[in-house]
C-alpha cells in the first residue's frame, strides 16, 4: 500500500474524511469539503454528478485509485467517492498524486 492510501487511512481515523455519495454531496454543498476523490472505476453517473456539484461549488475533484483499494485503505469493502475535509491533508494529496 502506498503513502496516499496510508494518509487516507490516518485521515479517516482522525474524522477528516466523509465516505459515500450522500455524505460527499452534503459536505460539498455545505462547503465543508476541501477535496473530493472519485475512484476510477466508480459508476459514470456517480462521477458525473459529483463533478457537477464540485464544479458548481468550486471544490477540487480528482479521480484516483480503484474502489476496492480505496475501501481496503479505509476499512471498508469498496469506496467509490470520498471527501477530504482538512485543508492540510487535501494539500498533501494534491501535491503527491
Detailed description of the structure:
With 97 residues, this protein is an alpha+beta fold. The chain has a single domain (3-96), classed as Ribosomal protein L30/S12 (60s Ribosomal Protein L30, Chain: A), CATH 3.30.1330.30. It has 5 helices and 4 strands; from the N terminus they run H-E-H-E-H-E-H-E-H. A 4-stranded mixed beta sheet has the order 1-4-2-3, sandwiched between helices. Helix 2 runs parallel beside helix 3.
What's this, in brief?
This protein is an alpha+beta fold and 97 residues long.
The H/E string reads HEHEHEHEH
How would you classify the helix and strand content by structural class?
A: alpha+beta
DSSP strand (E) fraction?
A: 15-25%
CATH topology: 60s Ribosomal Protein L30, Chain: A
| Overall outline | globular
Please, how many helices? Answer: 5
Would you count the extended β strands for me? 4
Largest sheet features: 4 strands, mixed
Query: What distance separates the N and C termini?
Result: 14 Å
Domains (count): 1
Rg, nearest Å: 12 Å
Overall average pLDDT: 92
CATH class category name: Alpha Beta
Which segments are poorly predicted (pLDDT under 50) over 5 or more consecutive residues? Answer: none
Would you identify the CATH H-level superfamily?
A: Ribosomal protein L30/S12
Task: Assign a percent range to the helix content.
Answer: 40-55%
Give the strand line-up of the largest sheet. Answer: 1-4-2-3
Oligomer: single chain
CATH architecture: 2-Layer Sandwich
Amino acid at each position: 500500500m502506498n503513502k496516499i492510501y496510508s494518509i487516507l487511512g490516518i485521515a479517516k481515523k482522525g474524522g477528516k474524511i466523509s465516505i459515500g455519495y450522500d455524505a460527499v454531496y452534503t459536505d460539498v454543498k455545505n462547503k465543508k469539503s476541501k477535496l473530493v476523490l472519485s475512484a476510477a472505476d466508480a459508476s459514470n453517473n456517480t462521477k458525473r454528478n459529483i463533478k457537477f456539484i464540485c464544479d458548481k461549488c468550486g471544490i477540487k475533484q480528482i479521480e484516483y485509485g480503484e474502489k476496492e483499494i480505496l475501501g481496503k485503505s479505509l476499512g471498508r469493502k469498496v469506496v467509490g467517492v470520498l471527501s477530504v475535509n482538512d485543508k492540510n491533508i487535501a494539500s498533501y494529496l494534491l501535491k503527491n498524486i
